[in-house]
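User: What would this chain look like folded?
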Amino acid sequence: MIVVGIIAVCVVLALLAFLVPRLSRHPERGTQRTLGVGSRAGGKAPGILGRIFSKPFRSSSKAVSHSGSAGRRARGRLPF
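Assistant: Here's the prediction, encoded as structure tokens.
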């Protein structure tokens, strides 16, 4: 269920970045901040469990960043 939510956020951010690139930065940063809180909370677990619990949040944050930048990059490549 969480995977579906992250995919939906990535799609929405990519569309937002394509349509209004300047206005897409704030939601992207907010999403990354939220995922960072989860990553830090998961990282407080002892030993290897900390890395295991924080990894999904780190990879989700990376995906959000890539989808936003991909939308802005695609908008920049338009001929008009």
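Helices lie at 2-19, 25-43, 48-76. If you want, I can go into more detail on any region.
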